[in-house]
Amino acid sequence: MLQRMPSSEHLVGKILVPLDGSPLAERAIPYAEELARALKTEVQLFQVALPIRGMLLSSTNLASPEETMALVQERVTQYFSGLTAKLGSSGPKVQFQISNLPAVDWELEEVRTHLLEMIVSLILQRVAEPDIGIVVLASHGSGARKGTAYGGVASRVLARCPKPVLVVRVINEAG
Question: Can you tell me the distance from the alpha carbon of 169 to that of 150, in angstroms, rounded to the nearest whole number?
Answer without folding.
Answer: 8
